[in-house]
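REQUEST FORM: STRUCTURE PREDICTION
Request ID: SP-0412
Submitted by: Lab K.M.
Chain count: 1
Length (residues): 430
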Amino acid sequence: MHDLKAIRDDPEAFDRALRRRGLPPQAAAVLELDREHRRLQQVVEEMQARRNSLSREIGRLRGKGEADAAAAAMAEVAGLKESLPAAEQAEREKGAAIDSLLATFPNRPAEDVPDGADETANVEIRRHGDPRQMPAARLDAPRQHFELGEALGLMDFQAAARLAGARFYILKGALARLERALAAFMLDLHTTEFGYAEVAPPFMVRDQAVYGTGQLPKFAEDLFRVAGGYWLIPTAEVPLTNLVAEEIIDAGSLPLRFTAYTPCFRSEAGAAGKDTRGMIRVHQFTKVELVSIAHPNRSAEEHERMTDCAETVLKRLGLPFRTVVLSAGDMGFAAAKTYDIEVWLPGQGRYREISSCSNCGDFQARRMKARFREPGAKGTRFVHTLNGSGLAVGRTLVALLENYQQPDGSIALPEALRPYMGGAAAIPAP
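STATUS: Completed
RESULT:
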């Protein structure tokens, strides 16, 4: 949510931010609604003040024996009581119209975010590992993960389609254990080395939770709604960030850091024809999520730290990757700045996103009314919220299969995962 006062103070800056997002200027429309809302507020306040003044005056007039004047005042009070609810309702509706309009606008890009309309304007800032040195490079034609999984007999898309339709998968045996091992490894790393508190959140949430993190109202078609008014979570970012909704946090407790391993459910609206085979773009997948609630003065530093935590997972697994900063036109709705971490997939011969780490500033906090108070301060300020994948478990499994495939059809396992796989050094070929 945007700060209405900031739009009043500098409408050009607001429109400039929208243009960087590829959107037309909207400050004039917002300010027109704001002017009408403030006019209605003034009308209501004047009517309430007049009613209160007359109510006090009636007693004085009666005491002086001025019955006619008292009766006239009573009649005016009665008229005000009758008309005031309609004026109050008009004022509330105009205020709701402003909130509804503001809720459709994405966050302002940070000043150091590169301009650009889409991913072609993203800027690579670092690279780790050399894809040419991976074992798969010795193969004449590195295979994609779905070819490897099906050859092992441990990945079944046909059975998943019979059960649930397209964009689902079934893992069996060693691959099912590998998915579980990856999640356990990531959680252990983030909780023991990086100080994140593990949370087991609900997988279904109410409207207010998905509104708070910015998925509603604009992106309802990307979500799954179920009976009882619930939404299946598209990411653990939703319940984790909303842990501080409506709260006033002591500044000394910041930053708060949470992590969770959950299923994620996405309709993949608009994804027709994209990644139709395999595990890259599916309706249900698992992810280890990282969320930070930070002091505004330190959220940029926290953003760098979170990104490093996610990158460390790939380093420990020996997977080559690059990190890019997204352009203004490629960022998610709630983000002010985003780093994408892209892992190398030999089967596709390119880098693919495996984590997005975003600093949302106070954008989500305003929607959730999540605030903090400095010691000795009377007022409160909005916290900054950050989220990132640490990592998407399914895509990490994909990267392991493709990068650690061996000429005999087996899959080597990195040292870091072997304790979670019963000490096995490889998934053997069938």
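NOTES: The radius of gyration is 28 Å.
Reviewed by: T.R.
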